[in-house]
């Protein structure tokens, strides 16, 4: 039971900071926060993503490219141009690393105001940091596993962020329902997104990319947005005015 709770904490903790910080803040900047709060959030993202830590800079730029080039050859991750999910994620990984290592030229519109903490990212994304977290996960399993099948969850702990990514970037462009007909394949995976904390409303998000709330219909409850509203209410962040939806 302890192992299951551990995986759930990693799943929803890492997912929240991916959605809240990397996606809605770094990529879309739907709210603002102080520099101190930003650095605290960098650290919390590393703490919960652990061995699969993603840089806000690399993620933010790549996600902006995804919106600009959705389902075209320039899209960093599109099922329309990759043979399978593993090929897509390998390409995503390569582009992400090229951005972080500044091996490719990036249009200025994709880099504007994307948060970056180079010193911290060089540590948090290092091989040393990833191996440290993986060692911790293994030791945790050694002490708390009560049945053989629980060891099957260890790779999930190692690869949590890529698993989150493939659910949205692969399955979210193949399966689900559509609220808005668009010139891309984005879908809403769930009518109530219990699994991805709002990220599963992918079609809604592609329609209203600057909205902090990914839910549109009454049953589309965006759990990350509810937490964002709470953080805004207590003054940790400040939501930007939302443009009227067309």
Short overview:
This protein has 246 residues and is an all-alpha fold.
Q: Mind explaining what this structure looks like?
A:
- The protein has 11 helices and 2 strands, in the order H-E-H-H-H-H-H-H-H-H-H-H-E.
- With 246 residues, the chain is mainly α.
- A two-stranded antiparallel ribbon has the order 1-2.
- The model has no long low-confidence stretch (mean pLDDT 96).
- It has helices at residues 2-27, 35-49, 56-68, 85-100, 108-111, 118-124, 127-144, 154-158, 160-169, 202-207, 223-233; strands spanning 31-32, 238-239.
Question: What order do the helices and strands come in, and which of them pair?
Answer:
Layout: H1 2-27, E1 31-32, H2 35-49, H3 56-68, H4 85-100, H5 108-111, H6 118-124, H7 127-144, H8 154-158, H9 160-169, H10 202-207, H11 223-233, E2 238-239
Antiparallel strand pairs: 1-2
Helix pairs in contact: 1-2, 1-3, 3-4
Derived from helix and strand composition plus strand pairing, the structural class reads mainly alpha
Strand content: under 5%
The low-confidence runs, each spanning 5 or more residues with pLDDT under 50, are: none
Shape, please?
globular
What integer value in Å does the Rg equal? Answer: 18 Å
């Amino acid at each position: 039971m302890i192992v299951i709770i551990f995986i759930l904490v990693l799943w929803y903790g890492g997912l929240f900071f991916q959605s809240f910080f990397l996606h809605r803040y770094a990529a879309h900047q739907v709210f603002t926060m102080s520099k101190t709060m930003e650095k605290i959030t960098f650290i919390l993202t590393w703490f919960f993503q652990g061995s699969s830590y993603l840089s806000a800079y690399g993620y933010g730029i790549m996600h902006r490219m995804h919106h600009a080039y959705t389902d075209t050859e320039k899209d960093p991750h599109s099922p329309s141009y990759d043979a399978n999910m593993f090929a897509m994620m390998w390409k995503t990984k390569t582009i992400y690393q090229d951005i972080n290592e500044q091996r490719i030229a990036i249009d200025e519109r994709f880099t504007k105001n994307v948060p970056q903490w180079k010193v911290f990212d060089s540590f948090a994304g290092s091989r040393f940091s990833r191996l440290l977290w993986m060692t911790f996960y293994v030791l945790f399993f050694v002490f708390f596993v009560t049945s053989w099948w629980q060891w099957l969850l260890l790779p999930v702990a190692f690869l949590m962020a890529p698993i989150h990514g493939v659910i949205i970037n692969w399955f979210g462009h193949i399966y689900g329902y559509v609220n808005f007909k668009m010139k891309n394949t984005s879908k809403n995976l769930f009518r109530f997104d219990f699994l991805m904390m709002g990220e599963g409303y992918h079609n809604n998000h592609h329609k209203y990319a600057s909205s902090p709330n990914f839910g549109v219909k009454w049953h589309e409850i965006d759990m990350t947005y509810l937490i964002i509203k709470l953080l805004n209410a207590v003054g940790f962040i400040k939501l930007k005015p939302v443009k009227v939806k067309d």
